Amino acid sequence: MSELNEKTRKQIDEWVAAAGSTESLGEDRLAELKSHLVDSTCQLTGLGLSEAEAVSVARSRMGDVTTLANEYRKGDSTFVWANRVFWMCIGYVSIHLAQMLVEAASMLTQSTLNWMSPYSTRMTWWTMPTLAILGWGGVFLLLWQLATRSSRLAGWVNQRRFLWLTVTLLALVTACQIVGQIQLTRWLSVEDVGRVMIVRAHQTFIAQIFIPLGMVAFAFCIRRYFASGSTRSAIAS
Amino acid sequence: MIPKELIAASTRPLVLSVLARGEDYGYAIIQRVRKLSGGELEWSEGMLYPVLHRLEKEGLIQSTWRVGDSGRRRKYYRLTRNGGKALQTEKSQWMAVHKTLTKSWRAQICPS
User: ipTM of this model?
Assistant: First the structure.
């Protein structure tokens, strides 16, 4: 760097220091990037640019530091796994949120039906499963509609595995609802069913609010620690 | 202008091909690719280094810090034996694509 003046060297050092402080690039990588900046600046000054212009162009050609750090991390297996765990957690939370919405909608519909016609709509073994199927179907249709309007979501939803995942989830949820409901209606009186529903609602509240929140916090901690971001084709300027 | 996806896909074989000629450092690799492509392939310069890092992790290239002819300390990369094999595979794959496209375009120009 001896052929560059003090100010230019300081500017290069500043870029390297900023890159080092914001992103955990490591000394070896930073030294290599600094060497690149010096080479680039020297070549540009050789082409007739002033040192101030040359260092500015060299820095801009280097690209965004965060994108650069993300590209480095793509080769890091710990980061790759952290990213996978993050999306697993997001998936888990999304399913729970959808399930909460469906259950809330089912309960609302059922209580409305009871209020409108208290004698004819007593809870039967098929009430909750039917409402669950309708609710899940609604969630699926909503997602499908959203997907057709968003190309980014479409890429993900249009995959066959999404369809199979949804069908499997629907089947599982419906089976659980049927089994649970048969047990409740067969072994307990209607009054007991009401009490059990309250207990189950409390359990659901705890499980579906606090566990997902904890998982989200955990996932964000992982993602924050290893940083993140998808930067496909970052090399192309 | 060449699309980003195509540039990104060609980075790996290009880096391996440049290093097959002899060891070199990051900045020189970029310059060589720019020259070979007649300025058509424009890389975001910093992004070459993560690619080099990945190739090194895969054992296709090796790096060493040393002082070059200019008296400046640089990180030099050279192809490993596995890198040579990977380059041959890449070559055959790209040649297959190239042949297919050439035949397809020839058929369009001279319909039989």
Answer: 0.86
